[in-house]
Amino acid sequence: MRVADLAHGRSGDKGDTCNVGIVAWDDDGYAVLRRELTEEKVAAHYGDLVKGTVTRYELPGIRALNFVLTGALDGGGTMSLRSDHLGKVMYAWLLRMEIGGA
Amino acid sequence: MTGKVVRLGAGMAFWGDRVQPAAEMVERGGIDYLCCDHLAELTMSILAKQRARNPEHGYTRDLIDLLRGALPGCIEKGVKVITNAGGANPRAAAEKVLELAKELGFSGLRVAVVTGDDIEADIDELMAQGVGFTNLDTGAELATVRDRLTHASVYTGCEGIVEALRLGADVVVCGRVTDIALYLGPLIHEFGWAPDDWQRLGMATVVAHAIECGGQATGGLYDGDWQHVPGLEELGYPIAEVSEDGTAVLTKTPGTGGRVDIGTLSEQLVYEILDPGNYLTADVTADFTNVRLEEVGPDRVRITGGTGKPRPETLKVNMGYRAGFVGEAQFTYTWPHAWEKAQRGLEFLKRRLDRAGFVHGEEIVEYPGHASMWGDRVPPPTDPDIPEIVVRYAARCPDAEQARKVFTESVPLYNNGPAGVAGVGTRPPLKELYAIWPCLIPREHVVQSVELLEV
Protein backbone atom coordinates (compact mmCIF):
# COMPACT_ATOMS: atom_id res chain seq x y z
CA MET A 1 0.00 0.00 0.00
CA ARG A 2 1.10 3.51 -0.73
CA VAL A 3 0.35 6.77 1.08
CA ALA A 4 -1.57 7.76 -2.08
CA ASP A 5 -4.12 5.01 -1.32
CA LEU A 6 -5.14 6.83 1.85
CA ALA A 7 -4.50 10.51 1.23
CA HIS A 8 -3.93 13.42 -1.10
CA GLY A 9 -1.45 16.23 -0.72
CA ARG A 10 0.08 19.56 -1.65
CA SER A 11 3.51 21.09 -1.18
CA GLY A 12 5.16 24.48 -1.43
CA ASP A 13 8.09 26.65 -0.41
CA LYS A 14 9.20 29.03 2.31
CA GLY A 15 12.72 29.98 1.37
CA ASP A 16 14.86 26.84 1.39
CA THR A 17 12.20 25.01 3.41
CA CYS A 18 9.58 22.86 1.72
CA ASN A 19 6.35 21.87 3.42
CA VAL A 20 4.41 18.78 2.44
CA GLY A 21 0.79 18.57 3.59
CA ILE A 22 -0.89 15.16 3.50
CA VAL A 23 -4.67 14.96 3.93
CA ALA A 24 -6.28 11.60 4.75
CA TRP A 25 -9.59 10.72 3.11
CA ASP A 26 -11.05 9.26 6.33
CA ASP A 27 -10.40 8.70 10.03
CA ASP A 28 -9.04 5.17 9.59
CA GLY A 29 -6.59 6.37 6.97
CA TYR A 30 -5.52 9.22 9.21
CA ALA A 31 -4.79 6.76 12.03
CA VAL A 32 -2.65 4.63 9.71
CA LEU A 33 -0.74 7.64 8.43
CA ARG A 34 -0.13 8.96 11.94
CA ARG A 35 1.33 5.58 12.83
CA GLU A 36 3.34 5.01 9.65
CA LEU A 37 4.59 8.45 8.67
CA THR A 38 7.06 9.08 11.45
CA GLU A 39 9.63 11.83 11.02
CA GLU A 40 12.35 9.17 10.76
CA LYS A 41 10.62 7.20 8.02
CA VAL A 42 9.73 10.30 6.03
CA ALA A 43 13.30 11.60 6.31
CA ALA A 44 14.62 8.26 5.06
CA HIS A 45 12.15 8.29 2.16
CA TYR A 46 13.29 11.72 1.01
CA GLY A 47 16.95 10.80 1.52
CA ASP A 48 19.37 13.41 0.21
CA LEU A 49 16.52 15.48 -1.23
CA VAL A 50 16.38 16.94 2.29
CA LYS A 51 19.68 18.31 3.56
CA GLY A 52 18.20 19.51 6.86
CA THR A 53 15.52 18.16 9.15
CA VAL A 54 12.01 16.72 8.91
CA THR A 55 9.44 17.89 11.46
CA ARG A 56 5.86 16.62 11.62
CA TYR A 57 2.80 18.58 12.76
CA GLU A 58 -0.80 17.41 13.08
CA LEU A 59 -4.10 19.08 12.13
CA PRO A 60 -6.65 16.55 13.38
CA GLY A 61 -9.74 18.60 12.44
CA ILE A 62 -8.97 18.15 8.75
CA ARG A 63 -7.10 14.82 9.18
CA ALA A 64 -3.88 16.33 7.92
CA LEU A 65 -0.19 15.88 8.65
CA ASN A 66 2.21 18.67 7.79
CA PHE A 67 5.85 17.84 7.17
CA VAL A 68 8.38 20.65 7.25
CA LEU A 69 11.56 19.81 5.33
CA THR A 70 14.45 22.21 5.80
CA GLY A 71 17.29 22.56 3.30
CA ALA A 72 15.12 20.94 0.65
CA LEU A 73 15.06 23.37 -2.27
CA ASP A 74 18.68 23.96 -3.28
CA GLY A 75 18.88 27.34 -1.59
CA GLY A 76 15.25 28.43 -2.00
CA GLY A 77 12.97 29.51 -4.81
CA THR A 78 15.02 32.45 -6.04
CA MET A 79 18.37 30.60 -6.03
CA SER A 80 17.47 27.02 -6.81
CA LEU A 81 18.72 25.26 -9.94
CA ARG A 82 16.00 22.63 -9.62
CA SER A 83 13.27 22.51 -12.28
CA ASP A 84 10.91 22.29 -9.30
CA HIS A 85 12.44 25.27 -7.57
CA LEU A 86 9.26 25.91 -5.53
CA GLY A 87 8.79 22.36 -4.29
CA LYS A 88 5.41 22.04 -5.98
CA VAL A 89 5.74 18.31 -6.63
CA MET A 90 7.57 17.25 -3.47
CA TYR A 91 4.21 16.05 -2.07
CA ALA A 92 3.97 13.38 -4.77
CA TRP A 93 7.21 11.72 -3.64
CA LEU A 94 5.67 11.20 -0.21
CA LEU A 95 2.44 9.86 -1.75
CA ARG A 96 4.57 7.22 -3.52
CA MET A 97 5.94 5.91 -0.23
CA GLU A 98 5.10 2.27 0.54
CA ILE A 99 3.56 1.76 3.98
CA GLY A 100 2.09 -1.05 6.07
CA GLY A 101 -1.74 -1.18 5.89
CA ALA A 102 -4.43 -1.15 8.59
CA MET B 1 -27.60 32.76 10.62
CA THR B 2 -28.00 36.44 11.43
CA GLY B 3 -25.61 39.28 11.94
CA LYS B 4 -23.29 41.25 9.74
CA VAL B 5 -21.30 39.39 7.09
CA VAL B 6 -18.39 40.86 5.14
CA ARG B 7 -17.65 39.29 1.77
CA LEU B 8 -14.00 39.21 0.73
CA GLY B 9 -12.95 38.06 -2.72
CA ALA B 10 -9.49 36.73 -3.53
CA GLY B 11 -8.96 38.31 -6.94
CA MET B 12 -5.31 37.58 -7.60
CA ALA B 13 -2.68 35.26 -6.16
CA PHE B 14 0.58 36.27 -7.83
CA TRP B 15 2.08 38.58 -10.46
CA GLY B 16 0.95 37.16 -13.79
CA ASP B 17 -2.15 35.40 -12.46
CA ARG B 18 -5.36 35.59 -14.52
CA VAL B 19 -7.19 38.92 -14.16
CA GLN B 20 -10.61 37.68 -15.29
CA PRO B 21 -11.68 36.04 -11.99
CA ALA B 22 -11.51 39.44 -10.27
CA ALA B 23 -13.88 41.04 -12.77
CA GLU B 24 -16.22 38.05 -12.46
CA MET B 25 -16.42 38.19 -8.68
CA VAL B 26 -17.07 41.94 -8.80
CA GLU B 27 -19.86 41.41 -11.35
CA ARG B 28 -21.66 38.50 -9.72
CA GLY B 29 -19.86 37.44 -6.55
CA GLY B 30 -21.61 39.97 -4.34
CA ILE B 31 -18.28 40.91 -2.73
CA ASP B 32 -17.59 43.97 -0.58
CA TYR B 33 -13.80 43.89 -0.97
CA LEU B 34 -11.56 42.66 -3.76
CA CYS B 35 -8.26 41.56 -2.19
CA CYS B 36 -5.34 41.06 -4.56
CA ASP B 37 -1.93 39.61 -3.74
CA HIS B 38 0.67 40.23 -6.42
CA LEU B 39 3.94 39.67 -4.56
CA ALA B 40 6.40 36.86 -3.96
CA GLU B 41 10.05 36.77 -2.85
CA LEU B 42 11.52 36.96 -6.34
CA THR B 43 8.90 39.50 -7.45
CA MET B 44 10.25 42.11 -5.07
CA SER B 45 13.79 41.76 -6.48
CA ILE B 46 12.55 42.09 -10.04
CA LEU B 47 10.42 45.13 -9.16
CA ALA B 48 13.31 46.81 -7.37
CA LYS B 49 15.45 46.31 -10.46
CA GLN B 50 12.73 47.83 -12.66
CA ARG B 51 12.44 50.84 -10.33
CA ALA B 52 16.20 51.36 -10.48
CA ARG B 53 15.99 51.58 -14.26
CA ASN B 54 12.90 53.78 -14.35
CA PRO B 55 11.52 55.69 -11.33
CA GLU B 56 7.98 55.30 -12.71
CA HIS B 57 8.24 51.49 -12.67
CA GLY B 58 8.62 48.99 -9.85
CA TYR B 59 5.02 47.87 -9.32
CA THR B 60 3.28 44.89 -10.90
CA ARG B 61 1.71 46.31 -14.01
CA ASP B 62 -0.94 43.60 -14.14
CA LEU B 63 -2.77 45.72 -11.56
CA ILE B 64 -3.78 48.01 -14.40
CA ASP B 65 -4.96 45.10 -16.57
CA LEU B 66 -6.96 43.81 -13.61
CA LEU B 67 -8.56 47.17 -12.85
CA ARG B 68 -9.34 47.86 -16.48
CA GLY B 69 -11.72 44.91 -16.23
CA ALA B 70 -12.82 45.22 -12.61
CA LEU B 71 -12.84 48.93 -11.78
CA PRO B 72 -16.08 49.89 -13.57
CA GLY B 73 -17.95 47.20 -11.62
CA CYS B 74 -16.21 48.15 -8.37
CA ILE B 75 -17.31 51.75 -8.75
CA GLU B 76 -20.87 50.80 -9.70
CA LYS B 77 -21.29 48.39 -6.79
CA GLY B 78 -19.11 50.09 -4.20
CA VAL B 79 -16.55 47.28 -4.03
CA LYS B 80 -13.26 48.42 -2.54
CA VAL B 81 -9.95 47.13 -3.82
CA ILE B 82 -7.05 46.20 -1.53
CA THR B 83 -3.78 45.29 -3.25
CA ASN B 84 -0.06 44.97 -2.63
CA ALA B 85 0.68 45.45 -6.34
CA GLY B 86 2.56 48.61 -5.37
CA GLY B 87 5.57 46.37 -4.79
CA ALA B 88 8.72 48.51 -4.79
CA ASN B 89 6.85 51.63 -5.92
CA PRO B 90 3.31 51.97 -4.52
CA ARG B 91 3.13 55.69 -5.29
CA ALA B 92 3.76 55.09 -9.00
CA ALA B 93 1.16 52.33 -9.03
CA ALA B 94 -1.43 54.64 -7.45
CA GLU B 95 -0.70 57.34 -10.04
CA LYS B 96 -1.30 54.79 -12.77
CA VAL B 97 -4.61 53.76 -11.18
CA LEU B 98 -5.70 57.40 -11.19
CA GLU B 99 -4.66 57.70 -14.82
CA LEU B 100 -6.75 54.65 -15.67
CA ALA B 101 -9.76 56.01 -13.79
CA LYS B 102 -9.52 59.24 -15.79
CA GLU B 103 -9.21 57.32 -19.02
CA LEU B 104 -12.34 55.31 -18.13
CA GLY B 105 -14.17 58.55 -17.35
CA PHE B 106 -14.51 58.22 -13.57
CA SER B 107 -14.10 61.09 -11.13
CA GLY B 108 -14.09 61.21 -7.35
CA LEU B 109 -12.11 57.96 -7.00
CA ARG B 110 -9.96 57.97 -3.87
CA VAL B 111 -6.75 55.96 -4.06
CA ALA B 112 -4.68 55.43 -0.92
CA VAL B 113 -0.96 54.73 -0.97
CA VAL B 114 0.32 52.71 1.98
CA THR B 115 4.09 52.86 2.53
CA GLY B 116 6.57 52.16 5.30
CA ASP B 117 7.70 48.69 4.23
CA ASP B 118 10.70 49.87 2.21
CA ILE B 119 13.61 50.39 4.63
CA GLU B 120 16.49 50.20 2.18
CA ALA B 121 17.41 53.87 2.55
CA ASP B 122 17.35 53.59 6.37
CA ILE B 123 19.54 50.52 6.82
CA ASP B 124 22.63 52.41 8.02
CA GLU B 125 20.65 54.49 10.47
CA LEU B 126 18.79 51.45 11.76
CA MET B 127 22.07 49.57 12.22
CA ALA B 128 23.44 52.56 14.12
CA GLN B 129 20.40 52.23 16.37
CA GLY B 130 21.29 48.61 17.04
CA VAL B 131 19.23 46.64 14.52
CA GLY B 132 21.54 43.78 13.54
CA PHE B 133 19.85 42.40 10.40
CA THR B 134 21.79 39.15 10.94
CA ASN B 135 20.67 36.39 8.62
CA LEU B 136 17.90 34.33 10.27
CA ASP B 137 19.01 31.12 8.55
CA THR B 138 22.79 31.37 8.66
CA GLY B 139 23.58 33.93 11.38
CA ALA B 140 25.83 35.80 8.92
CA GLU B 141 26.37 39.57 9.12
CA LEU B 142 24.69 41.86 6.60
CA ALA B 143 28.06 43.43 5.75
CA THR B 144 28.90 40.32 3.71
CA VAL B 145 26.27 41.21 1.09
CA ARG B 146 25.57 44.87 1.81
CA ASP B 147 27.01 46.17 -1.48
CA ARG B 148 24.89 43.75 -3.52
CA LEU B 149 21.46 44.56 -2.03
CA THR B 150 18.58 45.12 -4.43
CA HIS B 151 15.92 45.97 -1.85
CA ALA B 152 14.93 45.66 1.79
CA SER B 153 11.24 45.17 2.51
CA VAL B 154 9.46 44.63 5.80
CA TYR B 155 6.46 42.31 5.81
CA THR B 156 4.14 44.92 7.24
CA GLY B 157 0.70 44.35 8.74
CA CYS B 158 -2.77 45.72 8.17
CA GLU B 159 -2.66 48.98 10.17
CA GLY B 160 -2.13 51.16 7.10
CA ILE B 161 -4.98 49.46 5.24
CA VAL B 162 -7.36 50.00 8.17
CA GLU B 163 -6.37 53.67 8.26
CA ALA B 164 -6.78 54.06 4.49
CA LEU B 165 -10.29 52.59 4.65
CA ARG B 166 -11.18 54.88 7.57
CA LEU B 167 -10.12 57.81 5.40
CA GLY B 168 -12.58 56.64 2.76
CA ALA B 169 -10.26 55.09 0.19
CA ASP B 170 -11.84 53.19 -2.70
CA VAL B 171 -8.60 51.58 -3.80
CA VAL B 172 -5.77 50.84 -1.36
CA VAL B 173 -2.37 50.33 -2.99
CA CYS B 174 0.31 48.90 -0.70
CA GLY B 175 3.89 47.77 -1.00
CA ARG B 176 5.08 44.69 0.87
CA VAL B 177 2.23 44.11 3.26
CA THR B 178 1.59 40.46 4.11
CA ASP B 179 -0.93 38.56 2.04
CA ILE B 180 -2.94 38.13 5.23
CA ALA B 181 -3.04 41.89 5.90
CA LEU B 182 -4.96 42.41 2.65
CA TYR B 183 -7.83 40.49 4.27
CA LEU B 184 -7.48 41.46 7.95
CA GLY B 185 -7.47 45.18 7.07
CA PRO B 186 -11.04 45.32 5.72
CA LEU B 187 -12.32 42.99 8.46
CA ILE B 188 -10.92 45.15 11.26
CA HIS B 189 -12.35 48.20 9.52
CA GLU B 190 -15.80 46.63 9.20
CA PHE B 191 -16.10 44.83 12.53
CA GLY B 192 -14.04 47.19 14.67
CA TRP B 193 -12.02 44.34 16.16
CA ALA B 194 -9.41 45.42 18.69
CA PRO B 195 -5.81 45.08 17.47
CA ASP B 196 -5.21 42.56 20.29
CA ASP B 197 -8.34 40.48 19.70
CA TRP B 198 -6.08 37.50 19.03
CA GLN B 199 -8.96 35.01 18.86
CA ARG B 200 -10.77 36.79 16.03
CA LEU B 201 -7.59 37.89 14.24
CA GLY B 202 -6.27 34.33 14.41
CA MET B 203 -9.50 32.84 13.09
CA ALA B 204 -9.66 35.42 10.30
CA THR B 205 -6.04 34.67 9.41
CA VAL B 206 -6.95 31.03 8.88
CA VAL B 207 -9.80 32.19 6.61
CA ALA B 208 -7.46 34.50 4.69
CA HIS B 209 -4.85 31.76 4.31
CA ALA B 210 -7.50 29.43 2.88
CA ILE B 211 -8.37 31.79 0.01
CA GLU B 212 -5.34 34.02 -0.58
CA CYS B 213 -3.88 31.77 -3.28
CA GLY B 214 -6.95 32.22 -5.45
CA GLY B 215 -7.68 29.25 -7.67
CA GLN B 216 -5.77 26.86 -5.41
CA ALA B 217 -8.78 26.92 -3.06
CA THR B 218 -11.37 26.20 -5.73
CA GLY B 219 -9.99 23.14 -7.47
CA GLY B 220 -6.84 24.45 -9.11
CA LEU B 221 -3.66 22.50 -8.30
CA TYR B 222 -5.92 19.87 -6.76
CA ASP B 223 -4.40 16.45 -6.19
CA GLY B 224 -7.42 14.65 -4.69
CA ASP B 225 -10.00 13.45 -7.22
CA TRP B 226 -8.69 15.96 -9.76
CA GLN B 227 -10.35 14.12 -12.62
CA HIS B 228 -13.74 15.23 -11.32
CA VAL B 229 -13.17 18.96 -10.90
CA PRO B 230 -15.38 20.65 -13.51
CA GLY B 231 -14.48 23.67 -15.61
CA LEU B 232 -10.82 24.27 -14.76
CA GLU B 233 -10.56 26.41 -17.91
CA GLU B 234 -12.95 28.93 -16.38
CA LEU B 235 -11.98 28.45 -12.75
CA GLY B 236 -13.77 30.76 -10.33
CA TYR B 237 -11.81 32.32 -7.50
CA PRO B 238 -12.72 32.02 -3.81
CA ILE B 239 -14.91 34.27 -1.69
CA ALA B 240 -15.09 34.31 2.12
CA GLU B 241 -18.32 35.40 3.83
CA VAL B 242 -16.86 36.39 7.17
CA SER B 243 -18.94 36.74 10.34
CA GLU B 244 -18.27 38.96 13.32
CA ASP B 245 -16.54 36.11 15.20
CA GLY B 246 -14.02 35.68 12.37
CA THR B 247 -15.41 32.36 11.14
CA ALA B 248 -16.61 32.19 7.57
CA VAL B 249 -18.38 30.34 4.82
CA LEU B 250 -16.05 29.84 1.88
CA THR B 251 -17.47 29.76 -1.62
CA LYS B 252 -16.66 31.00 -5.13
CA THR B 253 -18.10 33.18 -7.85
CA PRO B 254 -21.40 31.67 -9.07
CA GLY B 255 -21.41 30.28 -12.60
CA THR B 256 -17.69 29.59 -12.74
CA GLY B 257 -15.70 26.38 -12.95
CA GLY B 258 -14.01 24.58 -10.13
CA ARG B 259 -15.22 23.19 -6.83
CA VAL B 260 -15.23 24.29 -3.20
CA ASP B 261 -15.42 21.37 -0.79
CA ILE B 262 -13.57 19.81 2.12
CA GLY B 263 -11.08 18.20 -0.26
CA THR B 264 -10.02 21.30 -2.17
CA LEU B 265 -9.88 23.46 0.95
CA SER B 266 -8.01 20.94 3.11
CA GLU B 267 -5.16 20.87 0.62
CA GLN B 268 -4.96 24.64 0.56
CA LEU B 269 -5.01 24.91 4.37
CA VAL B 270 -1.78 22.91 4.54
CA TYR B 271 -0.15 24.83 1.69
CA GLU B 272 2.99 26.73 2.66
CA ILE B 273 2.60 26.53 6.39
CA LEU B 274 5.28 25.56 8.88
CA ASP B 275 4.18 24.97 12.51
CA PRO B 276 0.36 25.24 12.29
CA GLY B 277 0.23 26.22 15.96
CA ASN B 278 2.41 29.25 15.36
CA TYR B 279 1.66 30.80 11.98
CA LEU B 280 3.53 34.07 12.26
CA THR B 281 2.17 37.21 10.64
CA ALA B 282 2.74 40.88 11.30
CA ASP B 283 -0.69 41.19 12.94
CA VAL B 284 -1.18 37.98 14.93
CA THR B 285 0.30 34.57 15.61
CA ALA B 286 -2.43 32.33 14.26
CA ASP B 287 -3.13 28.78 15.40
CA PHE B 288 -4.47 26.44 12.69
CA THR B 289 -4.19 23.27 14.78
CA ASN B 290 -7.90 22.67 15.32
CA VAL B 291 -9.30 24.15 12.12
CA ARG B 292 -12.47 22.41 10.93
CA LEU B 293 -14.39 22.34 7.66
CA GLU B 294 -18.07 21.54 7.19
CA GLU B 295 -19.90 21.39 3.85
CA VAL B 296 -23.07 23.46 4.21
CA GLY B 297 -24.24 23.61 0.59
CA PRO B 298 -23.05 23.22 -2.99
CA ASP B 299 -19.63 24.91 -3.18
CA ARG B 300 -20.15 26.23 0.35
CA VAL B 301 -17.93 25.22 3.27
CA ARG B 302 -18.00 26.59 6.80
CA ILE B 303 -14.56 27.09 8.35
CA THR B 304 -14.13 27.27 12.13
CA GLY B 305 -11.67 26.33 14.86
CA GLY B 306 -8.86 28.80 14.20
CA THR B 307 -7.50 30.90 17.01
CA GLY B 308 -4.59 33.17 17.77
CA LYS B 309 -1.94 34.43 20.17
CA PRO B 310 -0.13 37.75 20.49
CA ARG B 311 1.69 38.96 17.41
CA PRO B 312 5.49 38.69 17.31
CA GLU B 313 7.49 41.63 18.66
CA THR B 314 9.66 41.62 15.57
CA LEU B 315 8.71 41.90 11.92
CA LYS B 316 10.19 39.82 9.13
CA VAL B 317 12.41 41.62 6.65
CA ASN B 318 13.36 40.17 3.30
CA MET B 319 16.29 41.79 1.58
CA GLY B 320 17.34 40.74 -1.88
CA TYR B 321 20.88 40.68 -3.19
CA ARG B 322 22.48 39.89 -6.51
CA ALA B 323 23.99 36.41 -6.46
CA GLY B 324 25.37 35.75 -9.92
CA PHE B 325 23.87 34.02 -12.94
CA VAL B 326 22.67 30.59 -14.02
CA GLY B 327 24.52 28.85 -16.83
CA GLU B 328 22.27 26.29 -18.43
CA ALA B 329 22.21 23.82 -21.34
CA GLN B 330 19.80 21.12 -22.49
CA PHE B 331 20.04 18.41 -25.13
CA THR B 332 18.33 15.16 -26.10
CA TYR B 333 19.83 11.79 -27.10
CA THR B 334 17.80 9.11 -28.83
CA TRP B 335 17.78 5.34 -29.19
CA PRO B 336 19.94 3.35 -29.58
CA HIS B 337 22.00 3.66 -26.39
CA ALA B 338 20.19 6.86 -25.35
CA TRP B 339 21.30 6.71 -21.70
CA GLU B 340 24.93 5.88 -22.49
CA LYS B 341 25.10 8.65 -25.09
CA ALA B 342 23.55 11.10 -22.69
CA GLN B 343 26.31 10.30 -20.18
CA ARG B 344 28.95 10.74 -22.87
CA GLY B 345 27.40 14.05 -23.92
CA LEU B 346 27.44 15.26 -20.35
CA GLU B 347 31.07 14.26 -19.96
CA PHE B 348 31.86 16.06 -23.22
CA LEU B 349 30.21 19.25 -21.94
CA LYS B 350 31.99 19.17 -18.60
CA ARG B 351 35.41 18.54 -20.13
CA ARG B 352 34.96 21.34 -22.64
CA LEU B 353 33.90 23.66 -19.81
CA ASP B 354 37.04 22.72 -17.84
CA ARG B 355 39.20 23.60 -20.84
CA ALA B 356 37.36 26.93 -21.14
CA GLY B 357 38.36 27.80 -17.57
CA PHE B 358 34.79 27.60 -16.34
CA VAL B 359 34.34 29.06 -12.83
CA HIS B 360 31.16 27.98 -11.10
CA GLY B 361 29.42 27.12 -7.86
CA GLU B 362 26.89 24.33 -7.31
CA GLU B 363 25.73 22.42 -10.36
CA ILE B 364 22.82 20.13 -11.13
CA VAL B 365 22.03 17.45 -13.71
CA GLU B 366 18.42 16.54 -14.41
CA TYR B 367 16.82 14.23 -16.96
CA PRO B 368 13.48 15.88 -17.80
CA GLY B 369 10.92 13.24 -18.64
CA HIS B 370 12.80 10.62 -16.67
CA ALA B 371 14.18 12.13 -13.47
CA SER B 372 14.07 15.88 -12.93
CA MET B 373 11.89 16.33 -9.86
CA TRP B 374 13.19 14.02 -7.19
CA GLY B 375 16.93 14.00 -7.81
CA ASP B 376 18.88 10.81 -7.25
CA ARG B 377 15.88 9.13 -5.62
CA VAL B 378 14.94 8.09 -9.16
CA PRO B 379 17.48 5.56 -10.51
CA PRO B 380 18.79 5.51 -14.11
CA PRO B 381 16.43 3.86 -16.63
CA THR B 382 16.64 0.08 -16.79
CA ASP B 383 15.06 -0.26 -20.23
CA PRO B 384 17.91 -0.61 -22.79
CA ASP B 385 15.40 0.25 -25.52
CA ILE B 386 14.43 3.63 -24.05
CA PRO B 387 13.50 5.98 -26.96
CA GLU B 388 15.14 9.14 -25.66
CA ILE B 389 16.81 10.88 -22.74
CA VAL B 390 16.80 14.63 -22.17
CA VAL B 391 19.75 16.10 -20.26
CA ARG B 392 19.54 19.42 -18.44
CA TYR B 393 22.71 20.82 -16.91
CA ALA B 394 22.75 24.00 -14.83
CA ALA B 395 25.33 25.71 -12.64
CA ARG B 396 25.43 28.81 -10.49
CA CYS B 397 28.03 31.18 -11.91
CA PRO B 398 29.65 34.30 -10.46
CA ASP B 399 28.98 36.42 -13.54
CA ALA B 400 27.32 36.50 -16.95
CA GLU B 401 30.52 35.68 -18.81
CA GLN B 402 30.92 32.34 -17.01
CA ALA B 403 27.22 31.56 -17.35
CA ARG B 404 27.36 32.10 -21.12
CA LYS B 405 30.05 29.43 -21.45
CA VAL B 406 27.62 26.64 -20.55
CA PHE B 407 25.57 27.19 -23.68
CA THR B 408 28.56 27.99 -25.89
CA GLU B 409 30.39 24.81 -24.90
CA SER B 410 27.27 22.70 -25.44
CA VAL B 411 26.88 23.77 -29.09
CA PRO B 412 29.69 21.49 -30.40
CA LEU B 413 27.62 18.52 -29.23
CA TYR B 414 25.81 18.93 -32.54
CA ASN B 415 28.69 17.73 -34.66
CA ASN B 416 31.56 16.75 -32.37
CA GLY B 417 29.77 14.37 -29.99
CA PRO B 418 27.99 11.02 -30.51
CA ALA B 419 25.17 10.72 -33.06
CA GLY B 420 21.52 10.85 -32.09
CA VAL B 421 21.52 14.29 -30.53
CA ALA B 422 18.96 17.04 -31.06
CA GLY B 423 17.32 19.86 -29.17
CA VAL B 424 20.48 21.74 -28.17
CA GLY B 425 18.44 24.80 -29.02
CA THR B 426 19.31 28.43 -29.47
CA ARG B 427 21.10 30.71 -27.04
CA PRO B 428 18.81 31.16 -24.03
CA PRO B 429 18.50 34.50 -22.22
CA LEU B 430 20.73 34.50 -19.15
CA LYS B 431 18.96 34.29 -15.83
CA GLU B 432 20.29 36.49 -13.03
CA LEU B 433 20.06 35.12 -9.51
CA TYR B 434 18.73 37.03 -6.54
CA ALA B 435 19.28 35.61 -3.10
CA ILE B 436 17.06 36.40 -0.16
CA TRP B 437 18.48 37.71 3.10
CA PRO B 438 15.86 36.96 5.75
CA CYS B 439 16.16 38.94 8.97
CA LEU B 440 14.14 40.68 11.67
CA ILE B 441 13.41 44.20 12.80
CA PRO B 442 11.79 45.29 16.08
CA ARG B 443 8.35 46.57 15.15
CA GLU B 444 8.80 49.99 16.77
CA HIS B 445 11.17 50.91 13.93
CA VAL B 446 8.51 50.40 11.29
CA VAL B 447 5.78 52.98 10.79
CA GLN B 448 3.29 52.76 7.97
CA SER B 449 1.97 55.93 6.43
CA VAL B 450 -1.08 56.57 4.31
CA GLU B 451 -1.49 59.16 1.60
CA LEU B 452 -4.82 59.74 -0.13
CA LEU B 453 -4.89 60.74 -3.80
CA GLU B 454 -8.03 61.63 -5.71
CA VAL B 455 -8.93 61.89 -9.37
Notes on the protein architecture:
The complex is a heterodimer of chains A (102) and B (455). Chain A is α+β, with helices and mostly antiparallel strands and 102 residues long. Chain A has one domain (3-14, 24-79, 86-95). Chain A is built from three helices and four strands. Chain A has a four-stranded antiparallel β-sheet with strand order 1-2-4-3. With 455 residues, chain B is α+β, with helices and mostly antiparallel strands. Chain B folds into two domains: 5-117 and 155-312, no CATH class; 320-435, Alpha-Beta Plaits. Chain B has twelve helices and 19 strands. Chain B has helices spanning 20-28, 41-53, 62-77, 90-103, 123-128, 159-166, 181-191, 198-211, 262-269, 338-355, 400-410, 413-416; strands at residues 5-12, 33-36, 80-83, 110-115, 149-154, 171-174, 238-243, 248-252, 279-280, 285-287, 292-297, 300-304, 307-309, 314-334, 363-366, 388-397, 421-422, 431-442, 449-454. In chain B, the strands form three sheets. Chain B has a ten-stranded mixed β-sheet, with helices on both faces. In chain B, helix 1 (20-28) runs parallel beside helix 3 and helix 6 (159-166) crosses helix 7 (181-191). The longest helix of chain B is centred in the last third of the chain and has 18 residues, at 338-355. Chain B starts with a strand and ends with a strand.
Main features:
heterodimer; A: 102 residues; alpha+beta; 4-stranded antiparallel beta sheet; 4 strands; 24% helix; 27% strand; elongated; B: 455 residues; Alpha-Beta Plaits; 10-stranded mixed beta sheet; 12 helices; 19 strands; 29% helix; 26% strand; globular
